[in-house]
Specification:
This protein is mainly α. The protein has one domain: Farnesyl Diphosphate Synthase (Orthogonal Bundle). It contains 17 helices and two strands. This is Polyprenyl synthetase family protein.
């Protein structure tokens, strides 16, 4: 695994302080749910070590530097993007019935589904408030972009939910869903700092296209980890995506490959009873035998290469471009 790039770790303290200050706007009960979900406190409200990669806010700060403005310019956008991401995870855990998040009980299992839903709603509203407070042309641009990305994220989640009821999901449909659910917010994260810094449209467009491709690579790796990742590293149960019979990208590739393994995998996906541990191991073997694992890994690498091409014509400083490349390559080599 590649080490976490400095671009991700260096701005974490700056963003964390801004996120905590922004969360003070929330009512005490909602703030308690949010603080727990973000890893700041335990279930009793006592301080805890924060978790999460903080990838999106790091990209927002980096995009401000790409526009030759101080990274602090991007802080409202960095916090807003991370709050939208946190909102989506709060709701996603409830929708999927996932009981753990980052090696501890998910917020909805601690505070109840209703409180977790309200916590997500509060973060979503606060994300827009933070940008609108800025009252600049760049902030207006950023707020519109974040709203559009959030709408696409919700649309992607809706399609993902709908796929659970279908046995005929195509790979193109699955890629479109991933582009919305994951790629849209990463595209926004990669460009929102440049918007707040009122950088040139050419740069903002290049950064958004870079982020969209990197978002697909991120989802492909996430799906691989959802089947073959180590629970001790990912914080998710072993074979978690297959247990839920999710239409993940490697699984859909395997299901539509037209092989004998594809047919047997489809039978296990359609079985009325929950899969046994033996079934889960067999499903993982079938996804790999039908080519899903190799395809997803190769496609993630292809998406990263495509993302890097968008940086070539961006006009940004070479050193900043190299930092974006480091982040993109980290995405495909991570183990959590």
């Amino acid at each position: 695994m590649t080490a976490v790039p400095a671009s991700i770790t260096d701005g974490r303290a700056l963003v964390d302080a801004a996120m905590r200050a922004s969360a003070e706007r929330l009512d005490p009960w909602t703030r308690r749910v949010v603080a727990y979900h973000l890893g700041w406190t335990d279930e009793h409200g006592r301080p805890a070590a924060a978790g999460g990669k903080a990838l999106r806010p790091a990209l927002a700060l980096l995009s401000a530097r790409a526009a030759a403005t101080p990274q602090e310019t991007a802080l409202p956008g960095a916090v807003a993007v991370e709050f939208v991401h946190a909102f989506s995870l709060l709701h996603d855990d409830i929708m999927d019935g996932d009981r753990t998040r980052r090696h501890r009980p998910a917020a909805w299992t601690v505070f109840g589904p209703s409180a977790a839903i309200l916590g997500g709603d509060a973060l979503l509203a606060l994300s827009e408030e933070l940008l609108l407070d800025e009252q600049t042309r760049g902030a207006h641009w950023a707020a519109r972009a974040l709203t559009a990305a959030t709408q696409r994220l919700i649309s992607g989640q809706a399609f993902d939910l709908g796929f659970e009821q279908r046995g005929d999901v195509t790979l193109d449909e699955c890629l479109t869903m991933a582009a919305d659910k994951t790629g849209a917010l990463l595209a926004c994260a990669c460009s929102i700092g440049a918007m707040l810094g009122e950088g040139p449209t050419r740069l903002v467009t290049a950064l958004a296209e870079f982020g969209a491709e990197m978002g697909l690579a991120f989802q492909l790796v996430d799906d691989l980890l959802g089947i073959w990742g180590s629970p001790g590293t990912t914080g998710k149960p072993v074979l978690s995506d297959l247990r839920a019979r999710k239409k993940s990208l490697p699984a859909v590739y395997a299901l539509t490959a037209g092989t004998a393994e594809s047919d047997r995998l489809a039978e296990l996906y359609a079985a009325p009873e929950p899969p046994s541990e033996d079934d889960l191991r067999e499903m993982a073997r079938l996804v790999e035998a039908a080519g899903g694992r190799d395809w997803a890994a190769a496609e993630a690498d292809r998406r990263v290469a495509s993302a890097e091409k968008h940086l070539a014509d961006s006009g940004m400083d070479d050193a900043v471009r190299a930092e974006f490349r480091d982040v993109a390559r980290f995405v495909t080599s991570r183990d959590h």
